[in-house]
Amino acid sequence: MRKLKLLFSIALLCSVIWVSRAYILTAAGAYLVSAQEPKPADIIIVLGGDTSGARAQKGCQLLQQGLSKEAWMSGLLNFYGKAEGELAIEMMRGQGCPVAQMVPLKNQLDSTRDEARVIGKMMRDRGIKSYLLITSNFHTRRSGKVFREVNPDIEAIVVSADDNGFPVDRWWHSRSARRTFFYEWVKTVSYWVGL
């Protein structure tokens, strides 16, 4: 009788999870997103790692709106001999962006924490008190926490780029979004445990 009750309980639990799967998956994806409305700041920082150009476009849009006078374009060095920020600026030039206000950051940093340290020092050296941090929606929660933890003395406003690469309410339908979800959750858990 106990085995039958246990099997029934497991079957009931599995049924509830199956019926609620869209809600559970949406909630797991939505947790990764923690963005704010943009407002005026001393500088715009556009994080690299975006092959679609959506982050750079958001930085351009915010410059055009007058929310800051300058945007730092971060990202790895050595994409065919150029920094990712340089390539982003070239792309934005063709879209009528104020590229004279965009500065490529040339570095070999490949982690959000390292970027936060190096960029934080640059901001302090220039007396910057606030910044708009532009990244993809799935990266907003973790990058915001890292940048705020490393630079608690500088106000961070985390803004999501307008891309559709990670639709929170249906990410599990796309192979690339599933990969993004997996890697971002691995990085989030690593952040929690101090790795």
Q: Please count the beta strands (DSSP E, at least 2 residues each).
A: 7
**Name of the CATH first level:** Alpha Beta
Oligomeric state of the chains in view? single chain
- Strand proportion, as a percent range, falls in 5-15%
Which ranges are low-confidence, i.e. pLDDT below 50, for 5 or more consecutive residues?
Answer: none
* Distinct helical segment count: 7
Percent of residues in helices comes to 40-55%
CA gyration radius, whole angstroms: 20 Å
Shape: elongated
Q: How is the CATH topology named?
A: Rossmann fold
What's the mean pLDDT score?
A: 89
Largest sheet: 5 strands, parallel
Order of helices and strands: HHEHEEEHEHEHEH
Strand order of the largest sheet: 5-2-1-6-7
Tally of domains: 1
**Annotated CATH homologous superfamily:** HUPs
CATH architecture: 3-Layer(aba) Sandwich
Sheet/helix structural class: alpha/beta
Distance between the termini: 47 Å
Tell me about this structure:
The protein is an alpha/beta fold and 195 residues long. The chain has a single domain, classed as HUPs (Rossmann fold), CATH 3.40.50.620. Helix content is 48%, strand content 14%. It contains seven helices and seven strands, in the order ααβαβββαβαβαβα. The strands form two sheets. It has a five-stranded parallel β-sheet, with helices on both faces. The protein has a two-stranded antiparallel ribbon with strand order 3-4. A hairpin with a 2-residue loop joins strand 3 and strand 4. Helix 5 crosses helix 6. It is elongated and about 75 Å long. The protein starts with a helix and ends with a helix. The mean pLDDT is 89.
